[in-house]
């Protein structure tokens, strides 16, 4: 059973998402919160698999709440998914850096919402990778991260190749096809790269890939 915590200051959004998710046999909404502080407390109480959290909220916003969840060892298995009104919201990259596993646009169709929750629970792939790539292309313009660049030196050639493909939004199966290896081997390369780069999940792996210069944002 996938346990979900909903955090949004709009009751209508929470009730709509709950109604959709409660229809699924393998998903359970365990609690709702109206701000980030309450969401953090409920995350510690219920230990959900997924926290769906809005970016802009009173008391504690979604980015700060995400940062606190990611920093709490007791919540290491919690995957935070950001809710945003716009696919190119300028705060989304900050949320990914804070530890979010991905993000959803609030007008997502019901089937895609359910699929996204299941994908996030697996920790298998970024949500909406095409939108994520556009956002990273637009906002990643900072100097290279020394930590990330140093970490890249520890990667094998195949691990670097796998990370670059993750940053392009490819799934494990697609990476396996591209590298002519098994999906299990692809997953192993990615997991080892995450360990070496100290990435919490694939979302942070993508950010590190861009910030280190392993992948170069495309000019729009």
UniProtKB/TrEMBL annotation:
Keywords: DNA-binding, Phosphoprotein, Transcription, Transcription regulation. The keyword DNA repair does not apply. GO terms for molecular function: DNA binding. It holds the Pfam family GerE. InterPro entries: CheY-like_superfamily, NreC/VraR/RcsB-like_REC, Sig_transdc_resp-reg_C-effctor, Sig_transdc_resp-reg_receiver, Tscrpt_reg_LuxR_C, WalR-like. GO terms for biological process: phosphorelay signal transduction system; regulation of DNA-templated transcription. This is Two-component system regulatory protein. It comes from Streptomyces lincolnensis.
């Amino acid at each position: 059973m996938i346990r979900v915590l909903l955090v949004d200051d709009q009751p209508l959004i929470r009730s709509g998402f709950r109604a959709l998710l409660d229809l699924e046999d393998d998903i359970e909404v365990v609690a709702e919160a109206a701000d980030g502080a309450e969401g953090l407390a409920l995350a510690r109480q219920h230990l959900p698999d997924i926290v769906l959290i809005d970016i802009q909220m009173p008391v504690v916003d979604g980015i700060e709440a995400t940062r606190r969840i990611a920093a709490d060892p007791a919540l290491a298995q919690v995957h935070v998914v950001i809710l945003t009104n716009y696919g190119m919201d300028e705060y989304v990259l900050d949320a990914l850096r804070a530890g979010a596993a991905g993000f959803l646009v609030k007008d997502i169709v019901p089937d895609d919402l359910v699929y996204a929750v299941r994908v996030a629970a697996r920790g298998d792939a970024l949500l909406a990778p095409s939108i994520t790539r556009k956002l990273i292309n637009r906002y990643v313009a900072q100097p290279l991260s020394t930590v990330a660049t140093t970490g890249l030196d520890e990667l094998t050639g195949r691990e670097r190749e796998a990370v670059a493909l993750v940053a392009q939004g490819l799934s494990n199966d697609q990476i396996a096809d591209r590298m002519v290896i098994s999906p299990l081997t692809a997953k192993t390369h990615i997991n080892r790269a995450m360990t070496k780069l100290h990435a919490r999940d694939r979302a942070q792996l993508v950010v590190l890939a861009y910030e280190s210069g392993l992948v170069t944002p495309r000019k729009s």
